From TrEMBL:
Species of the source: Halomarina halobia
InterPro entries: DUF5800
Name of the featured protein: DUF5800 family protein
Pfam families: DUF5800
Length: 65
């Protein structure tokens, strides 16, 4: 299971027991849109090889309010 923790400057990730940080600029470059408009599902697709997102995608702007 992958755990994503969002804040204004990036995402803390725990993936297969490994913790790391994805900075805002890296996410924007990967997804090609502004950080607040990126969804949690899009970040999951960056991290996991074959993601299985559940629920409705949520924009980072809505998560970090």
């Amino acid at each position: 299971m992958t755990v994503l923790s969002f804040d204004e400057s990036g995402v803390d990730v725990v993936y297969k027991g490994t913790e790391f940080r994805l900075e805002k600029s890296l996410i924007e470059d990967a997804v090609q849109k502004p950080y607040p408009d990126v969804t949690d599902h899009e970040v999951l697709m960056i991290v996991e090889e074959d993601p299985s997102p559940t629920g409705e995608p949520r924009r980072i702007a809505d998560i970090v309010r």
